[in-house]
Design brief:
Layout (H helix, E strand, L loop, with lengths): L2 H7 L11 E6 L3 E7 L19 H20 L9 E11 L8 E12 L2 E10 L2 E12 L1
Antiparallel strand pairs: 1-2, 2-4, 3-6, 4-5, 5-6
């Protein structure tokens, strides 16, 4: 999926759209997407000026957005249909490696369950095969 199709399946827009491309999509199962980090992104001005680091909360959000694409595509819904995916929880969140300008962050999500509109995903991110973060997240379809 390129950015045009991603924009059809996520309600986010600049500067909060954090998925640049979907590389692999297995409906009902998993997704692999990427976020390319560049020094001109607004958060690097303050986090941190002398040693820029992608904020951990935004890395978690990027993984959640990848999971959202997987959920929307699996249900064959879009925000234009009136469907919205809300990020409602995270468990076992761990940060292992900082992400910096120049990194291509791989975003991975796998569906663990879907019960009554509450979706549970296993998410992770990595750069050059090194784990950056992982978590189990919950999203609600409303």
């Amino acid at each position: 999926m390129d950015i045009s199709e991603i924009r059809n399946h996520l309600p986010h827009r600049y500067p909060f759209l954090l998925v640049d491309r979907v590389l692999e999509l297995n409906l009902g199962d998993s997704i692999v997407a990427c976020k390319n980090l560049t020094i001109n992104e607004p958060f690097f001005n303050g986090h941190f000026p002398e040693q820029p680091v992608f904020p951990g909360v935004l890395l978690l959000e990027a993984m959640a957005q990848a999971a959202g694409i997987l959920g929307f595509k699996t249900m064959n819904k879009t925000p234009a249909d009136g469907s919205m995916y809300y990020f409602v929880g995270a468990d076992d969140l761990r940060f292992k490696r900082p992400c910096v300008p120049g990194d291509q962050v791989m975003l991975r999500a796998k569906i663990l369950s879907d019960r009554r509109g509450i979706w549970k995903f296993e998410v992770s991110s990595d750069v050059d095969g090194q784990r950056c973060a992982s978590a189990t997240i919950l999203c609600a379809d409303r």
